[in-house]
Amino acid sequence: MEKYFYTIGEVAEILKESTSLVRFWSNEFPKFIKPKRNAKGNRLFTKEDVETFKHIHLLVKVQGLTLEGAAKRLQGDRKEVISKSRVLDTLKSIRQQLSEIRQDL
Question: Using CA atoms, how far apart are residues 33 and 50, in angstroms rounded to an integer?
Answer without folding.
Answer: 9
